[in-house]
Predict the 3D structure of the following.
Amino acid sequence: MLTMTHLVALTPLILVCITAVAVMLGIAWQRHHAGTAIASAAGLNIALLSVLVIWQMGPVETPLLVIDGLALFAAILILISTLVCVTLAHAYLEKYPGPREEFYLLLLCAAAGGIVLAASRHLATLFFGLELLSMPLYGMLAYAFRERHSLEAGIKYLVLSAAATAFLLFGMALLYAQTGRLDLAGLAVALTEDPNAWALAGAGLMLVGLGFKLSIVPFHLWTPDVYEGGPGPAATFLASASKVAVFVVLLRLVLVAPAFQGDWLHGLLAVLAVVTMLVGNLLALAQSNLKRLLGYSSIAHFGYLMVALVIGDGLAVETVGVYLVTYLVTTLGAFGVVTLLSTPYSGEDAAALHHYRGLFWRRPYLTAVLTVSMLSLAGIPFTAGFIGKFYIIALGVEAERWWLVGGIIMGSAIGLFYYLRVMVTLFLVEPGMQRRDAPHDWGVRAGGVVVLGLALLVLLLGVYPSPMIEWVKLMAVAGS
Amino acid sequence: MGLPMTLLLPLTFLLPLAGTLILSISRGTLSERASAFVGVASIGLSALVTGLIFLQFLAGDGAPQTVTLWTWIAVGDFQPTIGLALDGLSLTMLGVITGVGFLIHLFAAWYMRGEEGITRFYAFMNLFVFSMILLVLGDNLLMLFLGWEGVGMCSYLLIGYYYQHSTNGWAAFKAFIVTRIGDVFLAIGMFLIFLELGTLNIAEILQRAPEVWARGDTMVELAALLILGGAMGKSAQLPLHTWLADAMAGPTPVSALIHAATMVTAGVYLIARMNGIFTLAPDVLYLVGVIGALTLLMAGFAALAQTDIKRVLAYSTMSQIGYMFLALGVGAFDAAIFHLMTHAFFKALLFLSAGAVIVSCHHEQDMSRLGGLWRRLPLAYAGFVIGGAALAALPLITAGFYSKDEILWQALASGNGGLLLAGLIGAFLTSLYTLRLIIGTFHGETKSDNARHAEAGRGLVHGLPLVVLAVLSTFLGAWLQPPLADVLPASPGEGVHAWHTALEIIASATALAGIALGAWLFLRRREWLARLAGQGWGARLWTLWNHAWGFDAFFDRLLVRPYRGLVRLLSGDPLDGLIGLSTRLAWLFNAGLTRTQTGKMRIYATSMVFGATLVLLVLVLGA
Amino acid sequence: MNQNATALIAEYWAVGLFVAAVVTLCVFMIGAASLLGGRSRGRSKSLPFESGIIGAGSARQRFSVKFYLVAMLFVIFDIEAVFLFAWSVAVREVGWSGFWGAAIFIFILLAGLVYDSRVGALDWAPKRRVRVDDSI
């Protein structure tokens, strides 16, 4: 039965849902772009505050959801990235000629889905959360549907995601057929008693479904096209909140269910991890489109993160936490700059690298933000990215998985090339190049402030990461 | 009573950092006046904070204090902390950096007036002070190294400040690359120490070193040698000294702050800081002394044959740091630091006075085109005379006398006759070239229009730093005894007094003899000198000294050209191809993989199915 | 593995047989018809054939997009209303908390409906669309 404790523990989720409904009714009542954005941001902020309050409660389990450290951690990350997306969307949609308000509605629904997904302890909520996360994303990706690329991205993601969902469902069905259970704990018990090929196949198919969302090689091919075509804020959400939620649930599966801990599955995960980081980085090498490049880079980064899944003990949860935080902050910063430089009104997003040529001479601070993000993605010391990568490598070394460590180092070496290439482009001067520019007062707008704050956070986390690490440790303890 | 150290110590370097940030964020929207104000005020506040720290430190028991700000990342055993350590040594350095630094910043407001990019100038200067403070306050070698690289970078940026002239750019390059050679040594030394002792914390290193290493152990000698390599590069000692004279391409306040008072003495600081390692490696310590002695002689002769005021001063800086190395070499660490401090005073004074002359004479800095200025530029003249007297260690009334005498006395007390002799010859040379510098600049006939139309600087900003530094260069400056007793090991001359007075008299006589000879030569026998330098072996000697014994050409022959030849030889090499193979391979893979991004959904779906099949096959067959 | 396989075969042989039978039947019917049946060709033979009358116009008719929109809305609300059946069956067992749950559910549906009607999704005629465009 649902008790008061349960309800309190679910407050963040409920608040996000209420905000979504309220925004919907608000739109029905009167369209107001800034008002909608402010209402969404307010709701998300209140939800974020409630998470901080609930933090002290300790794990609460409902039949379908579990609100533990990991879930709350993921909720915080999802809420923060949604907030960033809201502010970016406000800047991005300012001049959009179609209806602008629905974007926030979709964003809020997707955020609710992410929170459910990360907190699920039952295959039903897992599926439901994943779909609630993905469905609004189709709409968000195709939001600027007058742009051919945006529409293409939406349709591509829709179809391929549906296919991936089919795999996921099939995997769940196999597991259910084998054990007759749908809750993760029950599944774990049943599978320990009777592990067999069907269960493994089920686990493998679920891995395919989730691997698609995380764009793990060979399920990664959609990533660049969708990132490139989707409007800035949608791509931002896809790269940040969506991936965090899916990764957290995958972590939960691997930690809980023994079917995900067999030797072969571990071996498979290890191979996928190495292949993913290498392929992601190699594909980005000659890329001249910043959004695609960021897409490839996110492939590679989740390859690195999978190392933590493969090792799965010791520092693994802490590592995942630290890495996700650093990745999130960095990615949001990078996508934020891209979004601020683009509007859906003036053609497709400013993504081609030549748009960024000599950006420094026009928008030095924005360039600084992008530079810091690139450095962080490359894992240069004194940026957040270094801390994350350091953790991953330390984990690999400690577990003596030399192939994985070798993969990370090779991947990082390749990665350095294209990150630096972007940075060089920013500082080049060449007259007469095609130019895209942010509005003059971008720095005092909400989006600009957020992006600057993110860049500062990247540096701060790089220099003074211990509070973040302490916090993640707390989460790891509460989550296990 | 006072504020806690945890607040005060970070403030010393956060203030300059704030200055840098404000200046760099303003992006030229600040006026010249405002930029100068921000740049000077940040250092001034930092100096005030240092003063507070000084008072508190003296009021306390003088025990070293450490402030651990935070642990950077804690992964397993590797837990580098970001901590600050304050003891007599770092406090002395801190005082020099912020105190002299403030005066130089103030003077620069006058010197740089009307220059382009004054914001940039002050941003770099503040950044330099920030890095330098980090260097001396860091409680571990990692932070020290960070500051070490930071000052190197600022030095590079400021030498190339007038970047429109390519020669300045090359000078900056040279400084950066040559010091980088030393930095590599230092980095390897750090790794070695971490490998052997398992820590980078300086206090722990000094504590563990005697436990792990026996006296004269090969490892400790190697570590000391590597650290010495770093110190040599930074402090412009033989054979890594060639960059310093060219570094004078930067604005004169930069030369005063970075290339005379603070950064170049970082090597001395480093060796004094790591004294525990060096006392375990007596051979290397002796080598330090020998290098110092050789440098001070080499630079002394070179200074005799320069015509550019700033180059004379640059060689004199090398030579004076040679004295400091000599002191370190005989184990008199506190004498080295004492000389470091007094040298910072009088050399900054000399440089600033030189700056006053240069600006007054419309950027004329060649002695052969100056002369007879003493009536027109009285303040600069006074600065030169007082600073020069301190440099030449005129007995009793100058700061330089007390510190240099201490060094010579320690050399005698430790029984190193050779080093003492070198020191005495150096003292003689110092007097000689100092007098040549002053006479060449301020006496005789005025040789160019620029000098004839010299306008003396006016105002507090111009006068105050000169006056304060002049006061500090007299015996008053020598009263500031650095509180080093607890930090550094006892000197060999401690408690011994025999022959001390005799040595003082000899040293004074040497200095005076140099001055007398100089006065006779440069005032009375000028034509004879010019003739001597113009022909035969005199000319050859002049060229040799003018090029500082030809080290540049030597290195060019020995290193640069063979290196370039080697590069040319290796450019088509299979080894290179092997390294290039990885890149080519990466591009190949890239090309191959890019073909998979067809943009066609059916291909994408197929790859998913393919992947799923693979996953299933592996799992089902494997189970 | 081997034992497993044997057990599997033992368990599912009937299914396998069924699948095989279905495939065989299909192949037989199509194959036999194509072998035995006669063929005739002619210009009119390839025309679409509807109860003896030649089809009028193209089969690729363009429907108003509204058609799909309304159809979709119908499906969505219809499916969601189905959940209420589940509640109605167990209305006594789930008590007040079930009631509140259903109330919230219905409220959200209602909010969606209100939104749809205000946005103009339920209007068949395009006139109301103008209102939406105006409000931008």
About this structure: Chain C has two domains: 1-38, 65-134.
